[in-house]
Amino acid sequence: MNKRISTVLAILIAGGSLLMVNCNGDGSKSKKDDFAIPDSIFKDKPLMISKEAMNDIIDNISSPVEMAALIKSTGVPFNQKFLASTKNVDNLSTDFKQALNLGVYGCDLGYLNMYEKTGSIISNMQAIKKLADQLRIGHFFDFNTIKRLATNNENIDSLMYISVSSFNNMDEYLRENNRSDISSLLVTGMWIEGMYLACQVVKEVPHKDLVERIGDSKIVLSDLLLILKNYQSNSSFANLVKEIEKIKKEYENVTIHVIPGEPEMVEIDGMLTFKSNDQQIIDISDETLAKIIAAIENTRTMIINL
Amino acid sequence: MKNVIKILSVLLLSLTINHSFAQSDDLVNVCALGIGNATYLKDFKVKLPANSPAQKFSVILNKGTMYKFVVCNAEGYEGKAVIQISEGSNALVSNLKPDGTFAEAVGFSCSKTGMYNIMCSFKNAKEGAAVIIMSYVTK
To answer: I need a labelling partner for A122 at 20 to 30 A (CA). Which of A58, A108, A263, B95 fits?
Structure first.
């Protein structure tokens, strides 16, 4: 009797596993199962911060779409040259390289969407799809729908929503499945690329809002380092931490202080809205800004040439 | 036999959880349609049994950005989600109005980049499920 039950269970479990593989949208075994960052590397070492804290920090890193929106609001036109080339995508041979560059391309997708450059999206999306598949999270990226919306120049809001939510879902899945190391790389790639785009625009037009956003990113930088340091027993992570620490060093001369204001509740377009009215002063000299830009560019060059 | 029951329970539970996730994703899609002229940034899914403490999410909000938070309650639950945006212990804005009714959306005009909390509970501590869509309003 027990043997029969065990057999039934084995079939159920095997069936379930097959179902899960199929749900991943790619029934074939990944070419990179001999993975550059074995899970065991991290499993044996306690994390410096709890999983909950990690999740909080990763959640905290602002969406690259916000940066793209800010860039667009400055009135500076779209520039294709700012975007990372997708030519080398086939050479990204490890999960480490793939995850970082997936973040970079994800951010570029936000920039393309923001400027409604739907015609240029296809090669970016193909790179994203390829990397996401290699990382076994491609099933969250609805390539066909995004492609249809982009090629038909259909509803840009829908295109933006599907693009952003695909990345949010990938990130959520990674963290729920104990792959926070990959999630942290995805977020890092996005953050660096967002900063890189902002820096390129500031070099052309030093718009005050954008300079301030670069300056107040000091707040996020420490958090980013905190999550990456969790994995620095791996040499690739250790090198990345060193790079990001160089950026952090350039931020030492950025000062941020706040003059408290009187908050008020107002109605804007029929919506109850809280206005804090605090004044945040971000002091960043031209010299410091130039050094931050150079450090960001170096790190971004390192990532896209991995 | 006990082990078999345990394994079957785990399998059933995982199927139920997967089904719940699929439902919450549907709710996110529906809720995102209601953000109007704003642009979707992130969503937060909340499911709490009765008498649970509020669930907390942390987000970095940026100076100069106007954020919009839309709440959608899942069908089949009595609880209505109450969200409160706070900075540290300072409550800033809630979708629950003083008269006990709910605002469909609340705005937050951010003048200081920093970490803010989104607290979500259900009115009268009832069981509930909801999604919160965070978006920004284009200038």
So the answer is: A58
> What is the domain partition of chain B in residue ranges?
2-137
Does residue A176 belong to the interface with chain B, where contact is any CB pair within 8 Å? no
Per-residue pLDDT of A192-230, as tens digits, reads 999 999 999 999 999 999 999 999 999 889 889 988 998
* Interchain contact B101–A (C-beta under 8 A): no
Mind telling me how many Å the CA of B127 is from chain A's nearest CA? Answer: 23
Please indicate whether residue A270 or residue A279 has the higher confidence score (pLDDT).
Answer: A279
Can you name the CATH fold of B2-137? Jelly Rolls (2.60.120)
Q: What are phi and psi of A134, to 5 degrees?
A: -65, -30
Residue among B4, B11, B60 minimizing CB distance to A62: B60
d(CA B110, nearest CA chain A) in Å: 7
Separation of alpha carbons B9 and A192, rounded Å: 44
The packing angle between helices A218-229 and A51-60, to 10°, is 150
The whole-chain average pLDDT of chain A stands at: 82
pTM for the predicted model, two decimal places? 0.81
* Contact (CB, 8 A) for A147 and A155: no
Question: Can you give the pLDDT at residue A277?
Answer: 87
Q: Check if A23 contacts B (Cβ < 8 Å).
A: no
- More confident: A49 or B109: B109
In B24-139, at which residue ranges do the beta strands (DSSP E only) sit? Answer: 38-48, 55-61, 66-73, 81-87, 90-94, 105-109, 114-122, 128-137
Do B1 and A2 make contact, defined as CB atoms within 8 angstroms? yes
A227 touches chain B (CB under 8 A): no
